[in-house]
Amino acid sequence: MTSRRLVLTRSAAVIGAASTGLLLPQIVRAQSDKVRVGFMLPYTGTFAQLGVAIENGFRMALNEQGGKLGGREIEFFKVDDESNPAKGIENATRLVQRDNVDVLVGTVHSGVQMGIHKVARDTGVLNLIPNAGVHIATRAQCAPNVFRTSFTNSQPTLALGKAMVDRGHKKAVWITWNYAAGEEAYEGFEKSYTAAGGTIVKKLGLPFPNVEFQALLTEIASLNPDAVACFFAGGGAAKFLRDFAAAGLNKNIQLYGSGFLTEGVLDAAGDAANGVLTTMHYSDSLDTPRNKQFRLDYAKTFRAQPDVYAVQGYDTGLLLIKGANAVKGDISNKKALYAAMEGAVIDSPRGKWTMSKAHNPIQDMYLRKVENKENKVIGIAAKAVADPATGCRMA
Ligand code: PHB
Questions:
Q1: Which of 16, 24, 36, 198 is most deeply packed, by most CB within 10 A?
Q2: Model pTM score
Q3: Which CATH class is domain 155-280+367-385?
Q4: Which CATH architecture best describes the domain 2-151+288-359?
Q5: Residue 395 binned pLDDT confidence (cut-offs 50, 70, 90)
């Protein structure tokens, strides 16, 4: 909607200018001087909150720079991708061809990301991935114009297995949504858990974004493992936490997850989330001046607590600012822009991180425990975790 309104506003300005004749070139120049940033994020569905947090974080980083990129004003465009992979290419094409964005910021869902990825590779438009962890985007199909500020789907779970076995939980059931993010989170879990000596009793799944967990929870009860490990996120994660506790499973079975399980859902999950252990590249309770200031500023601006998605959106803004400042706003100077982004050290609320050669963060993974509606850090599960970037050759 916003993008349509902006387009209308612009053509109205041009028509108005045309009638006065002299003003036209000036107005056209002023408009094209703006950096055009497109958000392709979920604003409806199970990941709606994630999209909002990412956009908030991104805008916050830019507002800290006076709302400018390398000295240039910014014009925003928005598309709700609904976490619907079937519309991924069409939605990305809308931003790139119709709205002519310089930068596409998106998205959350790995399946939708594949649509954006095709458009980014075909057109060369700069794509900043503020969440979706789909491996191939920074592995075999890595690209000079695609940068990720979040994680690969197996990064958090590569830190999970050892933490579980260290706590004596050696027999686990895995459960997730059956799509790229769940499958790839499993890949990291399987590797780390079996390497640490754990046994995976059963792998369970359901289609995205279904939340009919009952039959699967009954099956878990009868398997009676030491632990359950999972990947869920957003509204579905809140429901899984509540259903797991309502079935009484949290009394005897320790629940673990890729940290998204407990991000942005702690109010909705209530007591059901208490004691859940997860691994993630961020924790609410990180005791650093950087994180504390970020949390204060975010809460003041948006009247909501930030989560990992807000941090990823914020870091996406920080990365783009580093690039745009290095080229003094001339983002058509792609070689210098990308070089600056590749060499950036991002001073994030999560801790400082750097960009791998495949354009994915190299970052620490924290072990966290939910206590009183907070993801409390209880240790570093793994230092400087880098995705293997298998098959990545930058053109
Ligand atoms: C993904 O689809 O890649 C995805 C979605 C939500 C998350 C994490 C990963 O929280």
A1: 198
A2: 0.92
A3: alpha beta
A4: 3-Layer(aba) Sandwich (3.40)
A5: confident
